[in-house]
Amino acid sequence: MKLLGISGSLRGNSLNTAILRSVAAKLPADTVLDIFPLNGIPPYDGDLDTDTPPPAVAALRAAIGAADGLVIATPEYNHGMSGVLKNALDWASRHYGAATLIGKPVLTLSASMMGTGGARAQAQLNETLTAITARLVLRPQIVVMAAHEKVRDGILEDTATLDFILAGIGDLALEIRARAVPA
């Protein structure tokens, strides 16, 4: 199974990216989680959204299209998801009716140093994905509060949190497999 991880943070020591990397390292041998960096995605501009979009956008769309499912991790900035993540989703949601995100199974999570764990950002992320008609994995919400205390040297060390996220990946895998079986 091929999963695509997207972190809503560009920071080199991002807690969200560290969590995605930690999860990727613990997946079964038949599952891979590649992380797509959003650093090169330009601000959305409809004038650039042509049959030949900017190369980084084309790469993002192709990576989403090639993945069986997505794992999106968002930080919380001012009670919402990061601008860079919203921008990437705006690019990925185009062209209307033909975007690679339509019907794509997606597991979301949020991580923050705050006690809310980024729950407000995750709610905003889920609302945006619903508008795009991605297929959200319905399960208990994954919010990692006090993430700075659970990630050390770029590794999610909190076993309970890691196990809960891996259970979410299991639910994502079930959703992917269920969608792959012909009706």
Characterise the protein shown here.
The chain is of the alpha/beta class and about 180 residues long. It contains 6 helices and 8 strands. It has helices at about 15-25, 55-65, 85-90, 120-130, 145-150, 160-180; strands at about 1-5, 30-35, 70-75, 105-110, 135, 140-145, 150, 155. Strands 1, 2, 3, 4, 5 and 6 form a 6-stranded parallel beta sheet that branches. The model has no long low-confidence stretch (mean pLDDT about 95).
Properties at a glance:
two-stranded antiparallel ribbon; globular; 183 residues; Rossmann fold; six-stranded parallel sheet; alpha/beta; 8 strands
CATH architecture: 3-Layer(aba) Sandwich
- End-to-end distance: 20 Å
Radius of gyration: 15 Å
Q: Could you name the CATH topology?
A: Rossmann fold
Q: How many beta strands in the DSSP annotation?
A: 8
Percent in helix:
25-40%
Count of runs of 4 or more consecutive helical residues: 6
Low-confidence stretches: none
Instruction: Write the element-wise H/E pattern from the N-terminal end onward.
Output: EHEHEHEHEEHEEH
Oligomer kind: single chain
Strand content: 15-25%
SS content category: alpha/beta
CATH class: Alpha Beta
The largest sheet is: 6 strands, parallel
The fourth-level CATH homologous superfamily is Flavodoxin domain
What average pLDDT do the residues reach?
Answer: 93
Shape, principal axes of CA atoms: globular
Number of domains: 1
